Amino acid sequence: MVFSFLTGIGGGAFSGYMPSTGYFFPKRMSGTALGTQAGIGNFGVSLIQLLGPWIVGFGLLGTALIEPQQTTEGIMRLHNIPLLFVPWTIVASILAFTMLKDVPIKANFRQQMDIFGNRNTWILTLIYLMTFGAFSGFAAQTALLINNTFGASSVFAETLDPATLPSGITYAFLGPLIGSAARVAWGPLCDRFGGAIWTLMSGIGMTAATTVAALQLRPTSPDSFPIFLGAMLTIFFFAGVGNASTFKQMPMIMPPRQAGGVIGWTAALAAFGPFIVGMGLAAVGGQPFFFGCMVFFTICTTLAWIFYARPHAPFPG
Asked: What are the structural domain ranges in the chain?
């Protein structure tokens, strides 16, 4: 819990310094700058899910000197996962201390609060909750969802060999990897064509893919798994596109001082994605929750069309 609290502070710092990136680049490059920075940061989710299951079997960084955690299946050095990042955290701290610069715009607390009087703040918050909230939330829950629906914890394990069923840990890293890569790749495209059209396309793609995924969540056989996996990876792809496009829109639509605050606010709110998705799946189950997401994504896509993407939209960007 202490570790989670400290990483939450780190996440808040991330939300705080993301706006700084926009101040050091012209608006025509803001999509590329923000997409690259955030996309590489998001890649950490995929990296942990890929390396985590592998490095627990090694005496990494001298961890053989630490008492290993014993399980019924043997030794599991679970402490390797956070220890892997200790050297890089130290390097990052040194770089931050020596190289980060203050932004050229100052605002007191009262001035920063005026973002909540701009309706674009609330619209973009909903849209970013759709894109990054879904990205982070599904990244945290996809492996468990696969295991419970198609894998060793599903009803199919009662009649079939669990070893022949899909394992969530095998596929967990793919979605965050695709979403992070899409965010980096679509930054320049958002600079080229504008963010609004890509936000609209992201919403349409996420809504369609979520519908397909929902229809596979009460399977009659494990043969439905490839369709479900494909739909989930499609959700991650379009979420990555939307993550890039919404961050491109914010500096274009909002005044410079407000743009920074809105980027930080939306990033912080969307970080509740893992909590929302986890609670939603636990409360109502997989298929009802996915259909609920479909409705929410449809609303957000409609807002993107009305306010930003349609011809003569009031806030194109």
From this structure: 21-55+116-309
